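Fold Annotation — chain and its backbone
Next Lines — sequence and tokenised fold

***
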Amino acid sequence: MTTLFLTAFFVSAQLITLDARDMDLGDFLRFMGNVAGMNVVIHPAVQGKVNLMVKEAQWEQVLDVVLKTHGLAKEVEGNIMRVVPNAVFEAEAKQKAATAAACLNALPLQTHTYFLNYAKAEDIAAIISRLLSPRGSVVAYPARNAVIVRDVENAEQCSH
């Protein structure tokens, strides 16, 4: 038998009191969105029941604990909160990384030579090497006090 006892009131803008037994998880998330003044988008795989009793607790802390208990995560953009299983965020992150890597590999390599006046090429090459993309390389040419840098240009366009 499913019973739902829902007593909620706002102690302040940040604190809530809530007593819920076998409350549908979707209803709970909509309730929390209402408390936060946010729109809520819930992934179809989000299901379950919520049993909790909190008194004068911060609404965001209550939400985070319930999400963690159910293996869920939230993403907030503007006034929209998206709730999905952790596995969905992990898959999206892997896909985004794979897309960025493919974009980076598709960019052509550019070579630039920089002649230095007030620093040693070996010292500057060590610093530059930390700033390059995975495809980049830098070579110090001490005879002319120059560094030769080979890397993709505009690599930042692949990180969007």
